DNA sequence: CCGATCAGAGAACACTGTTCTTGACAGTTT
DNA sequence: AAACTGTCAAGAACAGTGTTCTCTGATCGG
């Protein structure tokens, strides 16, 4: 009955259930947060007994890893989608696109954002071999933008020695062959990191409501100004 | 036997046990993180039965609130101590002092930092009436620094319209009488927030190792450069 | 000294993650 | 077609959790 090259009933069922688990788990994550993610609750939603879940997932931590990779990929996809139409645009508008995508995605998926960029889950370390590929996608995008820069804008009031020493601390990282830093100078990398930290700090503050709710009447405009500031830090009036 | 005005055995015991609970709970928090903070474990360490703890603490969340206030005050004290000798120093060096104190404190108390600035604990909202006083101390310090500024440095490459719109989003906040914003203009406030976000993003990235361990050979120098950048954003070459 | 108040103990309930055993079925091999 | 093998799910169990009772003493104010 089944075509000769078919995956087989078994394999197909397994794949179906695996995606189903992911789906339910992500829903639970969104609704109750990472710390409250319960295998039993997921199992209940799937009309399964808790132990049965262990056929598909090695442990709670393993499920968490799955969700982390999923979240990283979701964010990566969102960034790629935003960057697609801007392929030939100036680096600074590409940077702004990344920043605003990060913000939008974070506000839409606060639990996922917390999972990726919030406090680390205690006694859990994400296995690098499974998360790295997805986790570095956005950073890679950022680095390609910085790679085009040979110099860095000179802001009034900067202490040159402090800046140089800070950049020097990234020297070994720049030379690390594992990180594909296509000829970025330490100074540029330090600036790019700072720009990213600025964006990131702003998003975290808004998503986690660290300054309380409703700080700004127009959060979008406020963030646009912040992102604009970040581009000024990284690109100056280049382009 | 007991002096007439003595607090009485009961009251004294209670006070002693209350501080003891705080002490043990903070140790557990530091060792295992907020999510793993267990009332039963704390009780065990105090040679108490779990239910006895409920004479002193209304719930686990209540204990968490206690720890949050403690942490905020600890950070506030650290910042105040760092700022003390710099009373007459330039705002920019006071800003740097706040930034570096935040970083040092965060690295020394990562669990407390995660509690205050990391992902919010699910299904827990810190009761504002108990945390506000301690929670706003550092922000108040920051604002007094910004209050001296009448204008904001003009960075090359900034889009003026974007900046103005972003600042306008803070207009109602500036006018809010509840927040004692001693005459800070929206533009200055927006810049101050950005400077803070930059510092904050850098600290979070380092404490939570979001870019992996050992990004910089000299994290202190790297952070100094970041803080320097933040002062340039906020103060320019003023002072 | 006595009744009111409070501290702590102990048991219980409803949860959690995880492991082990056991029975049923699918897929493959003979 | 029969026998074997690996997979799946169920069920029970263990240790842990937060929380709420009830009950016994100790401490307090009058």
Automatic annotation (TrEMBL), chains A, B:
<dbReference type="Pfam" id="PF13305">
    <property type="entry name" value="TetR_C_33"/>
</dbReference>
<dbReference type="InterPro" id="IPR036271">
    <property type="entry name" value="Tet_transcr_reg_TetR-rel_C_sf"/>
</dbReference>
<feature type="domain" description="HTH tetR-type">
    <location>
        <begin position="15"/>
        <end position="75"/>
    </location>
</feature>
<dbReference type="InterPro" id="IPR009057">
    <property type="entry name" value="Homeodomain-like_sf"/>
</dbReference>
<dbReference type="GO" id="GO:0003700">
    <property type="term" value="F:DNA-binding transcription factor activity"/>
</dbReference>
<keyword id="KW-0238">DNA-binding</keyword>
<feature type="DNA-binding region" description="H-T-H motif">
    <location>
        <begin position="38"/>
        <end position="57"/>
    </location>
</feature>
<dbReference type="InterPro" id="IPR001647">
    <property type="entry name" value="HTH_TetR"/>
</dbReference>
<keyword id="KW-0804">Transcription</keyword>
<dbReference type="InterPro" id="IPR025996">
    <property type="entry name" value="MT1864/Rv1816-like_C"/>
</dbReference>
<dbReference type="Pfam" id="PF00440">
    <property type="entry name" value="TetR_N"/>
</dbReference>
<protein>
    <recommendedName>
        <fullName>HTH tetR-type domain-containing protein</fullName>
    </recommendedName>
</protein>
<keyword id="KW-0805">Transcription regulation</keyword>
<dbReference type="InterPro" id="IPR050109">
    <property type="entry name" value="HTH-type_TetR-like_transc_reg"/>
</dbReference>
<dbReference type="GO" id="GO:0000976">
    <property type="term" value="F:transcription cis-regulatory region binding"/>
</dbReference>
């Amino acid at each position: 009955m089944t075509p000769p090259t078919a995956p087989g009933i078994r394999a197909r069922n397994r794949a179906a259930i695996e995606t189903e688990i992911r789906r339910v788990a992500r829903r639970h994550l969104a609704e109750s947060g990472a710390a409250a993610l319960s295998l039993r609750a997921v199992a209940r939603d799937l009309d399964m007994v808790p132990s049965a879940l262990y056929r598909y997932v090695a442990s709670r931590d393993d499920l968490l890893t799955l969700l982390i990779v999923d979240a990283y990929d979701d964010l990566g996809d969102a960034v790629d989608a935003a960057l697609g139409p801007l392929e030939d645009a100036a680096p600074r508008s590409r940077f702004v696109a990344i920043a605003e995508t990060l913000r939008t995605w974070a506000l839409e998926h606060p639990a996922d954002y917390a999972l990726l960029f919030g406090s680390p889950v205690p006694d859990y370390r994400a296995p690098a071999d499974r998360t790295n590929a997805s986790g570095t996608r956005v950073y890679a995008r950022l680095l390609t933008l910085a790679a085009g820069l040979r110099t860095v804008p000179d802001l009034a009031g900067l202490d040159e020695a402090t800046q140089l020493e800070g950049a020097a601390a990234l020297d070994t990282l720049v030379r690390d062959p594992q990180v594909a830093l296509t000829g970025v100078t330490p100074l540029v990398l330090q600036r790019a990191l700072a720009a990213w930290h600025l964006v990131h700090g702003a998003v975290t503050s808004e998503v986690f409501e660290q300054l309380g709710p409703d700080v700004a009447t127009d959060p979008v405009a406020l963030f646009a100004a912040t992102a604009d500031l970040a581009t000024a830090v990284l690109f100056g009036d280049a382009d």
